[in-house]
Amino acid sequence: MNQDNDLATGTSPPPASPPPPRGPSLRLIFVIVLAFIVTLALGAGLSGRLSMAWHKLRHGTHSGNESADSHQYYTCGMHPWVVLPQPGDCPICGMKLVPLDPAKFTGEVSINPVIAQNIGIRLSPVTTGPVVRTIRTVGTVTSDETRLRDVNIKVGGWIEKLHVDYLGAAVKKDDPLFELYSPELFAAQEEYLLALKNQPKGSPTGASGGATSLLASARTKLEYFDITPQQIEDLEKRGEPAKTMTIRSPQNGVVIAKLATEGMKVDPGMQMYRIADLSKVWVMMTLYEYQLPYVLVGQSATMSLSYLPGQKFDGKVIYIYPYLDDKTRQVNVRLEFDNPAGLLKPGMYATVDLHSTLAKDRTLAPRSSIIDTGERKVAFVSLGEGRFEPRKVQTGAQAQDGMVEVLDGLKPGEKVVTSGQFLIDSEANVRESLARMIRGNLSVDQKPSVASAGASQVDTLPPPAAEFLQNILRNYLAIQAKLSADATKGMADPANAIAADVDALLKVNLPDDAHFWHKHDEVATVRGKALELAQAGSLETSRLAFADLSIALDKLLKATGVPKDFGQEVQELHCPMYRHGQGGTIWLQTAGPVANPYFGASMPGCFDQRKALPIAGMASETGARP
Questions:
Q1: Share of the chain above pLDDT 90, in %
Q2: Which of 75, 382, 466, 577 could pair with 563 as two cysteines, CB 3.0-4.6 Å apart?
Q3: Which of 348, 341, 339, 319 lies closest to 331, judged by CA?
Q4: Where are the alpha helices (DSSP H) in 225-320?
């Protein structure tokens, strides 16, 4: 009451104590409203000013009154996304705009040397050298299969004594293995001695020639029983058969299998020993199929073993198996290594390195200097004095010692960042985005590219059918405009007109296909949904009916094509949010700004796909048929 009197008399009331705080709700609402107004203002004015500035930079149209710093831009310290071509106040907070560093228009980054030291930036030079591809894998040492010999018995008998009585024994060629008593072998000795006694002295006659042949036959029999020439010579000197004969080793090696025991009865064909010559060994390893181009027969290899640290063995690839394991997608490869000291033992695991020289002289950079995002590869080149420049590079094969071949983007002698480059990359991305905004095409200047939805199914569209289709399209677009404006008033008239035009359209026969309308039942759906839309009462009910109408009309126009005389491109747009659980839905509109009829003013630009509907008769012009 007193306040009203004070206002009436024009006097100000005495100062009173401030009211208790009511919370930040009013201030928050004020800030939100202000931000919304500023956003609208920026959308209306900022893009135009940036477009004008870009036009000046692009075409170089400077008037005589322009200042020398016409390329200078200004930004706000609190809102760095605000970039204007002239000084003034920030449209958001009102702060004074400050000049923007022109260096930020490029991706170049400047860092204080002290800061670069603190964040751990390290440099390495780009060099030249051979591109050597190294494949490292694990192999298993095995015996050389071509150096295995079995000692088998060719006559029956009994083993009287063993000279080699344990596995792993090292033997040399002609070393005694065991003493064998065999009645058949004893008889062969007697037969040889008898033939030797009957050998006449002097010149052979017809009878003596037969004796000589008999002697040769007896000697051959002994040799076939694995009796050595030295043993036969000893038999001749002795003049009488021995009870046992010594079976000797056929080669140098190691006994890797033993079945013989003293007193054992043996039969022809039984294996007594297996002897492996380990002066050379095989190493078996597996490679994936993508590694096969880098492996060739005769290629050198280096092997190391964990129990012999620091020692390397040199070998080579001797065989690549001609088949692939269909489960592991791997191929077996065989290598050969010399083993004169016997250090390589079958069953050992070894680490094998295969080296292949792909090129002799190429540009090489440290692999750690390349940032690979999947879509691009970037390296940061040091320009000196704390300045770094991002370079897009193209890489080739991986080389040894952590190097990679560089096909384009770097030159020998340049220094690249090998540590801390991700921190530099984040700053460079910010500057690159700013450079694209200043120098690139602004969104207001860009024209969207729209994919084609295919070709129409008819070659010719009669003029009456084209006229009815144009009427249906115009009325449909009128409904779409109302729904995008969140309005339903006056929607019944264009909806009823669509139904009437569909009835007239069905009476027109298409010359290409007399049964065209019978095959396309979506025509009936267009008519039914149009009548349903005319009776819809609420905005939500109208949008549901409009969605079904859009699907049916889209299918119809893809079959008939948009009439050529319509004069505008009709596009199919997909909204992923409306009917989200059903995969979204579509609507039709002409080319231009997006006007979503399902969300209206709340989300007018909601869409994720855009296709142009075919023009009627496109099939006859392009020769394409769906």
A1: 35
A2: 466
A3: 319
A4: 229-238
